């Protein structure tokens, strides 16, 4: 069934059809999203708005559409696909990172609101996953221009990201985490997913801000595979 998270009519029509066919909605997985790269100076406001429209406002739009049904049922689970980028900042992806920080805060807040209605909220925080995420990534033209003062460092980061994705965990690892969460009687608020995710989140907890910045800088200085 077609559903465009950036189109309110598309969302409402799809939810209406699903409820008509199935009579209820038990699980919502908010998985729509894409990456917008580039140094902030090289990214246009329109590109940033489009990033938030899909990654944040789209998630909100679909969630709002299913909540009346879940409240009536007094049950349901909402799974928001975040990222380890919602737990820690990484360079040259500030618009994308900002959307994932927003999803984290939004999810944690609505978990309180929805608990009295029997609705649970779960955050999934994947690391590098071997998907087509890189092919769907949007790169502003200015960030790909060799005249940009950020060009050299941006190329280094892109090379490392592509290497990480090519060697990332398989998508079924994320699917298993989602399935475990939605079938649990008492799911956690947060789950990491992927071989590198738990390690990086733990590093962020253990290290001070200067220490973590040094850790990331040293990692980015490594030659890409």
How is this structure best summarized?
This protein has 7 helices and 4 strands.
How would you characterize the overall build of this protein?
The protein is 51% helix and 10% strand. Helix 2 links the parallel strand 1 (27-30) and strand 2. The protein has a single domain (8-220), classed as NAD(P)-binding Rossmann-like Domain (Rossmann fold, 3-Layer(aba) Sandwich). The protein has seven helices and four strands; from the N terminus they run αβαβαβααβαα. With 225 residues, the protein is of the alpha/beta class. The relative contact order is 0.14.
Quick tags:
225 residues, alpha/beta, 7 helices
Structural topology:
Layout lengths: L7 H15 L4 E4 L14 H29 L2 E6 L12 H21 L4 E8 L24 H16 L4 H12 L7 E4 L3 H10 L2 H12 L5
Parallel strand pairs: 1-2, 2-3, 3-4
Helix pairs in contact: 1-2, 2-3
- Would you give the CATH topology? Rossmann fold
Q: Strand order, biggest sheet?
A: 1-2-3-4
Count of folded domains = 1
Please mark out the parts with pLDDT under 50 across 5 or more consecutive residues, or reply none: none
Strand content: 5-15%
Order of helices and strands: HEHEHEHHEHH
The general outline is globular
On the 0 to 100 scale, the average pLDDT is: 93
Q: Structural class from helices and strands?
A: alpha/beta
Q: Radius of gyration in whole Å, from Cα?
A: 19 Å
Q: CATH superfamily name?
A: NAD(P)-binding Rossmann-like Domain
> How far apart lie the N and C ends?
39 Å
User: Quaternary state, please?
Assistant: single chain
Q: How many alpha or pi helices?
A: 7
Major pleated sheet: 4 strands, parallel
Q: Helix content range of the residues, please?
A: 40-55%
What is the architecture at the second tier of CATH? 3-Layer(aba) Sandwich
**Class in CATH?**
Alpha Beta
Secondary structure: number of strands: 4
């Amino acid at each position: 069934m077609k559903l465009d998270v950036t189109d309110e009519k598309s969302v409402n029509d799809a939810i209406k059809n699903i409820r008509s066919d199935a009579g209820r909605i038990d699980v919502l997985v908010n998985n729509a999203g894409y990456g917008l790269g580039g140094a902030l100076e090289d990214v246009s406001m329109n590109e940033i708005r489009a990033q938030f429209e899909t990654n944040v406002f789209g998630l909100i739009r679909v969630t709002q559409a299913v909540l009346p049904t879940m409240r009536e049922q007094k049950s349901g689970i909402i799974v928001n696909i975040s990222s380890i980028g919602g737990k820690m900042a990484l360079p040259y992806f500030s618009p994308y990172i900002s959307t994932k920080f927003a999803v984290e805060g939004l999810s944690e807040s609505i978990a309180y609101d929805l608990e009295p209605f029997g609705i649970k909220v779960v955050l999934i925080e994947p690391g590098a996953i071997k998907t087509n995420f890189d092919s769907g990534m949007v790169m502003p033209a200015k960030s790909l221009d060799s005249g940009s003062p950020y060009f050299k460092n941006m190329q280094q980061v892109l090379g490392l990201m592509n290497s990480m994705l090519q060697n990332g965990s398989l998508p079924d690892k994320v699917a298993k985490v989602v399935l475990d969460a939605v079938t649990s009687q008492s799911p956690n608020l947060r789950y990491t997913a992927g071989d590198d995710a738990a390690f990086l989140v733990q590093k962020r907890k253990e290290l001070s801000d200067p220490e973590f910045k040094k850790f990331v800088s040293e990692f980015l200085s490594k030659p890409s595979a």
